[in-house]
C-alpha cells in the first residue's frame, strides 16, 4: 500500500484515546458541512425555478421527490459499503477493506446503469402516476431526463464517499460536495438563463455530480485513510458482493419504502391543487435545514458503530451512538425554534412572485407544526443510521412500513379531504384540513417510528448483527 494510503490514520477511532464527544463531533462536523452543500444545491435549484412559472415550481417539487427516490436507491450501495468497510477497518484488516471498496464501486456502477435505463424509459409514466398533468408534467419529465442519464456517475460518487466514511473520513465527502456546489452555481445559472431554460438547472446539477464522481475515484486510486482502490480489487468477488448486499438490500428496501410512501403522500397533496403542492414542496425544502445535523450525526454514528463492533467493543459502539443522538437532537430542536419563528420569511424566499402570498399563507402553519417534530426526526435519522452501521437493517424496515402505511397514509386521507372514498367499502366524512391535515399525519408517523427505534436500540440486539 502506498504512503498516501497509510499516512492519514494509524488505527480506527474505536481504539483512539479521544473522548466519545470528540470522536463524534470530529466526524459529524465535516459531514454536517457536506449535508449543507447538498441542501445548497437543492435550494439553489428551487431559487432558479422561482424565475419561471408556478407550473415550473410544481414540476421541480415533483422532480425533487423522484430524485429523492434515487437518493434512497443509493442505499443499496452506500449502507453496505460503510458498514462492511467500517467492520474491516475496526478489525484493522485493511486488505479486505480495500477489497470491499472495489466491490462497492462495481456495485455502484451496475446499480447506476440499471437506474439510468429505468429512468430514461419510465420517467413519463411515473410523473403521470404522481398526479401531475399538463405543462407541469411536461416540465418535470424534461427536467428528470438529464438527471437520469448521468445516474451511474452519481451512484459511484455516493458509493466512494460511503467507503471513506466507513474508514472514518468525512472530509473527502465535504471537499467533493463543496466542489459540486462551486461548479453547480455558475453552470445551472448559465444554462438555465440561456437556450436550455428550465432544463438547464438539471444539466448543471448532473454535470457537477459527474465531475464529483471523477474526483472521488481519483482520491481512492491515490489512497486515503488506509484505503486504496486498485484495478485488481475491481474484479468481481461474489462472496463479498453478497456480504455488501446482505446489509444493503434491507436498507435499500427501507429507504425505497420511505420514498414510495412519500410519493404516495405526494399524490394526496397534489389533489389539493397547485398552491398546496407548491407550499408543501417549499416547506419540505426549508425543513431540510433541520435534517442537516441529523444526517451528519447519523453518518458519524454509522461509521463509529461499525468500527467499534469490528474492534469487538460493543459498549463503545452504544455510547458513541447515544452521544451522536444527543448532540444531533439538541441541534435539530434548536432548528425547530427557527422554523417556528421565521416560517413566513423562509416560505416567502422560495415562493414564485405570482402566488407568493397564497403559498406563504398555506405553508407557514405546516412548517411551524414540524418544528415540534424535530426531536422525533433526530431519532429516526440518527438511530436508524446507528442500526445500519451495525448491519441491523431488517427490523427498521418493518418500522418504516408500520409508520408510513399504518399511520401516515391512512391519516393523510382522513385529515386532508372532505370525503374519504374507500371504493367498494363506501365513503365517510373526512376532517377536510387540507395541507395541514397531511402534515399532522406526518407528525404522528414521525413520533410513532421514533418510539419504536428507541426501544430497538436500547434492547442491544443490534450488537449481534452479522455483516
Can you describe this structure?
By secondary structure, the protein is mostly helical. It has one domain (24-461). 79% of the residues lie in helices and 1% in strands. The chain has a two-stranded antiparallel sheet. Helix 3 runs antiparallel to helix 10 and helix 11 (274-310) packs parallel to helix 13. The chain is globular.
What is the CA-atom radius of gyration, in angstroms?
A: 22 Å
Number of strands: 2
Question: Any idea what the shape is?
Answer: globular
Question: Order of strands side by side in the largest beta sheet?
Answer: 1-2
Estimated helix fraction: over 70%
Model regions low in confidence, pLDDT < 50 over at least 5 residues: 1-11, 13-17
Series of H and E elements = HHHHHHHHHHHHHHHEEH
CA(first)-CA(last) distance: 25 Å
Estimate the mean pLDDT confidence.
Answer: 87
- Total of helices: 16
- Beta-strand fraction estimate: under 5%
What would you call the structural class? mainly alpha
| Main sheet characteristics | 2 strands, antiparallel
Return the domain count: 1
Amino acid at each position: 500500500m502506498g504512503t498516501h494510503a497509510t499516512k492519514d490514520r494509524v488505527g480506527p477511532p474505536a481504539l483512539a484515546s479521544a473522548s466519545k464527544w470528540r470522536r463524534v463531533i470530529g466526524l459529524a462536523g465535516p459531514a454536517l458541512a457536506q449535508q449543507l452543500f447538498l441542501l445548497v444545491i437543492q435550494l439553489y435549484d428551487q431559487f432558479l425555478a422561482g424565475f419561471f412559472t408556478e407550473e415550473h415550481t410544481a414540476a421541480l417539487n415533483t422532480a425533487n421527490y423522484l430524485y429523492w427516490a434515487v437518493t434512497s436507491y443509493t442505499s443499496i450501495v452506500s449502507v453496505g459499503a460503510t458498514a462492511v468497510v467500517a467492520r474491516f477497518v475496526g478489525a484493522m484488516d485493511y486488505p479486505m477493506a480495500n477489497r470491499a471498496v472495489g466491490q462497492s464501486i462495481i456495485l455502484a456502477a451496475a446499480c447506476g446503469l440499471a437506474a439510468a435505463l429505468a429512468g430514461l424509459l419510465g420517467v413519463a409514466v411515473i410523473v403521470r402516476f404522481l398526479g401531475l398533468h399538463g405543462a407541469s408534467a411536461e416540465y418535470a419529465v424534461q427536467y428528470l431526463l438529464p438527471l437520469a442519464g448521468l445516474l451511474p456517475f452519481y451512484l459511484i460518487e455516493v458509493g466512494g464517499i460511503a467507503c471513506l466514511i466507513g474508514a472514518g473520513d468525512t472530509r473527502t465527502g465535504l471537499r467533493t460536495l463543496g466542489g459540486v456546489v462551486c461548479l453547480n452555481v455558475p453552470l445551472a445559472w448559465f444554462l438555465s438563463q440561456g437556450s436550455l431554460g428550465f432544463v438547464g438547472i438539471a444539466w448543471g446539477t448532473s454535470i457537477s455530480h459527474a465531475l464529483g464522481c471523477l474526483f472521488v475515484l481519483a482520491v481512492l486510486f491515490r489512497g486515503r485513510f488506509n484505503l486504496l482502490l486498485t484495478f485488481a480489487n475491481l474484479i468481481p468477488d461474489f462472496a463479498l458482493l453478497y456480504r455488501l448486499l446482505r446489509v444493503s438490500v434491507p436498507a435499500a428496501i427501507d429507504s425505497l419504502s420511505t420514498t414510495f410512501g412519500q410519493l404516495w403522500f405526494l399524490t394526496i397533496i397534489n389533489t389539493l391543487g397547485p398552491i398546496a403542492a407548491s407550499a408543501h414542496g417549499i416547506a419540505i425544502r426549508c425543513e431540510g435545514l433541520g435534517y442537516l445535523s441529523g444526517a451528519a450525526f447519523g453518518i458519524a454514528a454509522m461509521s463509529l458503530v461499525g468500527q467499534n463492533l469490528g474492534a469487538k467493543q460493543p459498549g463503545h459502539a452504544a455510547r458513541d451512538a447515544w452521544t451522536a443522538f444527543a448532540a444531533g437532537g439538541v441541534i435539530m430542536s434548536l432548528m425547530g425554534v427557527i422554523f417556528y419563528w421565521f416560517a413566513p420569511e423562509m416560505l416567502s424566499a422560495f415562493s414564485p412572485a405570482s402566488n407568493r402570498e397564497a403559498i406563504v399563507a398555506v405553508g407557514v402553519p405546516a412548517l411551524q407544526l414540524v418544528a415540534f417534530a424535530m426531536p422525533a426526526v433526530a431519532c429516526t435519522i440518527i438511530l436508524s443510521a446507528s442500526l445500519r452501521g451495525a448491519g441491523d437493517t431488517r427490523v427498521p424496515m418493518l418500522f418504516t412500513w408500520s409508520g408510513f402505511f399504518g399511520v401516515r397514509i391512512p391519516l393523510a386521507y382522513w385529515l386532508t379531504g372532505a370525503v374519504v372514498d374507500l371504493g367498494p367499502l363506501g365513503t365517510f366524512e373526512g376532517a377536510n384540513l387540507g395541507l395541514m391535515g397531511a402534515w399532522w399525519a406526518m407528525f404522528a408517523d414521525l413520533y410513532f417510528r421514533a418510539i419504536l427505534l428507541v426501544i430497538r436500540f436500547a434492547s442491544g440486539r443490534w450488537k449481534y448483527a452479522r455483516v
